[in-house]
Amino acid sequence: MNILSLITFLPLAGALLVLALPKEKERAVQIVSLLFSGLALVLSAALFFYFDRQTSDMQFVERLPWIPSVGVQYFLGVDGLSFPLLLLTTLMTFVSLIASLNIKNRIKEYFFWFLILEVGMLGVFAALDLVLFYVFWEITLVPMYFLIGIWGGPKKEYAAIKFFLYTLTGSVFMLLGILAVYFKSSPHTFDLLVLLQAHPTWDRTFQIIVFLAFYLGFAVKVPAFPFHTWLPLAHVEAPTAVSVVLAAVLLKMGVYGIMRVSYGMLPLGFQWFLPFLVVIAVIGIVYGSLCAMAQSDMKKMVAYSSINHMGYCLLGIAGLSVTGFAGSVLEMVNHGIITGALFLLVGVIYDRAHTRDITAFGGLAAKVPVYAGIMSLACFASLGLPGLSGFWGELLCFVGAFPRWKIYTAVSVIGLLVTTAFFLRMLEKVFLGPFNEKWKDLTDLDARELCALLPLVALTIYLGIYPKPALDLINATVGHMAGLIK
Amino acid sequence: MQNLGLLAPEIALSLLGLGLMLADLLVPAKASKLLYHFAWVAAAVALVLIARGLSVPGGLPAGGGLWVVDAMSQFFKLAVLLSVIMTVMLCLEYGQLPPAQAGTFCALLIFSAVGMMLLVSATDLLLVFVALELISVSSFVLAGFERSNRKSNEGAIKYFLFGAFSSAIMVYGISLYYGATGTTRLVDPASAGLWLPALQSQGPVFSLAMLLILLGFGFKAAMAPMHFWVPDAYEGAPLPVTAFLSVAPKIATLGALARVYMILVPAAGLEFTTLLALLAMLTMTVGNTVAIFQDNVKRLLAYSSVAQAGYILIGIVSANALGLEGVLIYSLVYVAMNLGAFAVVQAVGDDGSRGGLGSYELAAFDGLAQRSLSLALLMTLFLLSLAGLPPLAGFIGKFYLFAAALDAGRSASGGASPAVFYSLAVVAVLNSVVSVYYYMKIAYHMFFVPAPSGTQAPALHAGPYLYACLAVAAAGVLYFGIYPDPLIANVKLSVPQLP
Known about the structure:
The structure holds two protein chains of two kinds. By secondary structure, chain A is mainly α. Helix content of chain A is 74%, strand content 3%. Chain A has helices at residues 3-20, 26-50, 82-99, 107-126, 130-139, 141-151, 156-184, 192-198, 204-221, 230-237, 240-265, 267-293, 298-318, 322-353, 364-367, 369-383, 389-401, 406-431, 447-465, 468-482; strands spanning 59-67, 72-78. A two-stranded antiparallel sheet of chain A has the order 1-2. In chain A, α7 (156-184) crosses α10 (230-237) and α11 packs parallel to α13 (298-318). The longest helix of chain A is centred in the C-terminal third of the chain and has 32 residues, at 322-353. Chain A is globular and about 70 Å long. The two termini of chain A are 40 Å apart. In chain B, 72% of the residues lie in helices and 1% in strands. Chain B has a two-stranded antiparallel sheet with strand order 1-2. The longest helix of chain B is centred in the C-terminal third of the chain and has 33 residues, at 321-353.
């Protein structure tokens, strides 16, 4: 079995094992889940050393006929665009599973669904056949529905079904898009690599229509304005670890789809849409940050900041330059790590205080110094302070977009300012000022929480000081991609 | 009579059915389970017989052109017999059937299956009619089999009245067909096995005849707006019967419809595509939107089965090879997923008759995940397959049908405009989204709502036959979903060449 299949399906094996365990054996369920997810992490980390950074070709390719009668293949492979996201997925899932050890009810089901979710996410980034891609894409929906709906907050059922229906509506149009390109290509194929070469023969109208079909699927996932309304709700209601993977990985599927499928396969449609895309990106940046500013619920604030950060990614793409693309991919990875940490931290305080209201706290820095320190670091990273990882992604996105979209880029800088403002305001209200005596029993991070957070903190600092390892992974591929459209 | 041997499975099954009827007199009520076992074994034997002779090259006309045995008809027969076997499995676990009439019950089930087998083989409108009546009359009685249950009676009466009405319409259509063409045959006996290349008359009488026959089919397959008997008949019927009715007659009728409307109508140069497309859209939309508001799971699945027929119609409307393949694939996977879903419903509902909490209300599914995680997960599997989510069999079916619509739109020449097919595809995908809402409503009750407090929610009792049925269904849904190639390869061999 090839390495990518192994990574993708290890969590599935874990999930089936979990299902076979009796539900009283909670410790065993947790150990099995961590073990299988951890193995996937170790294997993908090992790939890091084998990954060829000089080429833009697909690597670790694996190709088998799956439904030969209609030309569907089991076709996996990664390049500089998908490999960083694959790494991010295994890392963030593992971290989330550690954070999930405090789940108290229906443990077996929880870990079962979580592992299935990991299979779907890994598959999306590894698949190079459009039907396979779609299958994995849809697989993520069901576990997410149950994870939000069973273990979530007060309005969990509503949030769960809203998430499900929104994303499904988008993705069924994507399915029509997939079928359309299948019939347009000759010979008919779902092979993404072949389809990426086939577009010169496709007329512009066709490309635009199909682009829109795909865009619906991807934009809902990103989420790009105006399809973003499911996100704050899903985030607020979801349990901590689910918010972490939702922000860190699931949103990236949308941006990844736009870069991998729409951009390369439908260049005419993409060029037609470009003016709209940049506007949507700027709206995401400015509007997302303003919404975040208006929140007093920390989790909602972080959720809206995700919309804002996804706007940076879209802006980077709209720049159509090597720098912009690299920035976009880097921003995806960094945002995954940083926002994952932020959601974990918000979860920590919610576990203890049962509130996430910014105004309910005050002066906590003295009481919980470690927590305050890590929170400040994550916030600074998220608002793009140089020296921390968030900075590089944002910088490259802006630099990449500026030559083509001077005014839009300038406008979106407002978003940067507002982001800084709301993070600083949150830090001030929660950690500084007079101590609120109500929280005198608050305890600092425990070992489990630190285990989940420290890898993320370490990466944030490391990639902030030395982003080259990440960029090395990305560069060859984005360099090739940027050359596709002149 | 030529080639009577080709009808051997049907003849054998009919004789066995007659035997079963008599068996009521001989077998004591205590041993009535024996008859059910006899029935499913009979169906299984017929299934094996047909499966062995599946590789029919071209098609073998028989009865002087009354019926044809080709790979397509055999495929549908397999699906029908499979659903008979699974239904009998459900009956074995179902508490409310009177043991004294087990033989009659099984016989009617078998007769109705024979009707379906004749229907998918029929190439003569009279045989189509007789087969449809054989299905219908057996089904009317089956639907009313719980005689002490008023809902069962009401449903059966409604079913009967509308059924008789639709038969009359259809017979009128057939008589007009005869008037227009001078024959009731759908094939040309002279060039045995070939579809009538050109009909003698293509005037308005012929068009009207085809329209009325379509109406008749529409009633039987419960297409909107001819579906209004469905919820009551399905709700009242004993659950295994509901499960059976929602699957077998539907796919048999659609199979026959596919034969008539994909092959004959284009050959006759008639333009029914737009009408059929509208019917398909209406059927999907009505079924799905009304299903949202149901609180009774039997009714919910009844409306969902209306919608499912709408999806299958896409394949017929598309009238291309992909579409016909889609009809076959979807029919078979529909048997697995719908009967599987009904099996879980029975496990929950029949619990009530054993003094448990069960009923067919949605509320009875509260906390099923805690009472039996395996049943809840299986139900989720079937529901997601019905909704068309990958990697389950329902997805492959829908994938084929949507592909057929887009392909038909791409290569539309003359006749219906591509827009018809494209809007059909769009309406279909939107409908899949709507359907997720109400399928997930069941999942919501199973997983999100805690079991009613006070009672110490007992674990569900479900017997071995029910689990056998579930196992077959789940295996089908997963296998055809993950590795559909053998099925597709078979189906490709089964569809006749389109003109």
